[in-house]
Here is the input.
Amino acid sequence: MSVKPSDSTSAIPSELLSKIKPAKWEDTPLVLNKRNFHWVTEKICGIVEQKTPTWWWWCFITAMAIASFTGLGLLYLVSTGVGVWGNNNPVNWGWAIVNFVFWIGIGHAGTLISAILCLLKQKWRTSINRASEAMTVFAVMCAGIFPLFHVGRVWFAWWLFPLPNANAIWPQFRSPLEWDVFAVSTYFTVSILFWYMGMIPDLAVLRDRAKETWRKYFYGVLAMGWRNANNHWRNFEMAYLLLAGLSTPLVLSVHTIVSFDFAVANLPGWHTTIFPPYFVAGAIFSGFGMVLTLLLPLRAIFGLHDLITEKHIDNMCKIILATGSMVGYAYSMEFFIAWYGANSYEGFAFINRAFGNYWWAYWIMISCNVICPQLFWFKSIKNNIPLVWIISIFVNVGMWFERFVIANTTLSRDFLPSSWGYYSPTVVDIFTFFGTFGFFSILFLLFLRFLPLMPMAEVKSVMPAADPHGGKH
Amino acid sequence: MGKLMDIKYGLAATFNSAKELFDAAGLVREEGYKEWECYTPIPVHGLDAQMGVGRSKVPCFTLLGGITGFCTGMLIVWFMNAYDYPLIVGGKPYFSPIYPFPVFYELTILFAAFGTLFGMFFLNRLPRHNHPVFEHPSFGRTGDDKYMIVIEVEDPKFDDDVTKDFLKSVGGKSITLIREPINS
Here is the structure.
């Protein structure tokens, strides 16, 4: 709780106060223009209750068209074989792992906002957490496509799970790839549970406002008969806190285990203990980039300036700056350890990263991930919304290249020069990845159209009117 | 089948602010009512203590789920890699609680999360789509910006006139008798 000036200064004699003239501390409100509860309800419900806007249809059709590239790419792959991708010896992972890690990483900001910031009592998270959680769920869906189809015969992908099959062979639990199956599927399931549970009170509001029959049934079934009772809230708040507590170690473990895919292998450039924290920081960095990329246009389209304020954007820029600096630190630490470790293979791997066959990818990564976010030291840049949006796109690009650099420089130049190669994606690779942006957009547009964009009850909870003690706490 | 009869469910009073409801809830508790409930658009801070209800029991379900998940993870790894089809990997023991740690870890979280969600549903007795308070003409406003206290007929102290006057005295507006339709 913020301490009011009157509380903190009441014990000090007034003659002393007049001498030191303490500055007044005022918290910037999280909802601007003194909006009331009803305004919030109308604003958020209005987004799903209004007639479908024309721009929505244009975006939806475009997203469908883009997503069809993934559809065609996968159809061609399944009917021909996994050789239609550019993966070949020595680079057997290629874009599949790059895209997988890229999309999974994006999801992490959603969980950070909904879980970690909840535990840290960061009240500003309330207006952005629902959309970010939706982003998490959809990003994990996009991520799943790549390992799923990389197995080649996708109809056998269920062998990854510990289910009895005709071969009577079970999964091998010492493999980090098997750990990944558990980590990613748990992450996906728990993210959906958390997202859905947080939505129940808002779905009940939409149910109670519904005029059309289909709406009454749709929101009615989803709201599970929620009735705003204090007994409901009591269990709901406890469950929400517990899910936040469970999601926090979960989100940290997911990218840790993803980094094990690399770090457990004995390859120079991969076999390092810095990978787990470095991957988690990178994931949060890229995820916040994507949150800004998505929310800044929504803020403008739906007029949400009173709910997603400059303070929110400023805070997100600061997190990008912090995590971007951590990533930059990790890059330099990798180089230092490669030199300090005095292992010639490790040393070569890093010199090769910066100046070898993929030097261009490395320098794209450095400029987007290390240099770009440093601009957020300047308040004038943080307050320039179009510029923030452009930087957020650079962050996304940079983080994709980071995974590309990690996966491909090491694999293309391993121990034996006789097995060196150069990896290039095929057109099928490019189509499949390009289309996932359409797939993601379809899901996100449907979310905007049918589900509450912001948790209304949570936004109301951080407004002054929610205080039952009339400011005397 | 039609709505041929109805029975009394309780008396509802609305309030305009969290503070009004909070103060009134304290008075209802002091008056000695037992079967009553507050309906609020937000979880009101400190209302549990004000109503005299204890801590939520959801954590028990979370713990139960977590233990189940941990044991399930241990069991499947031991059964699959050490018992049913012993698998030699790198000459290491068939089973150890260390190497498949991520599997237990994730399953512990997964089952604990399910335990939490279903525990919340169970304790709230949801799904239930037909509660009598939905019959209140402006029940929907409790999800928007109104607060409501409902004292049920079930309460031993309930009396049509006395309770009505009491709700008025604690500052309740538009006192309404909620009637629950029943099919006969």
About this structure: The domain at 33-461 of chain A is CATH 1.20.1630.10 (Formate dehydrogenase/DMSO reductase fold). Residues 1-6 of chain A have pLDDT under 50 and may be disordered.
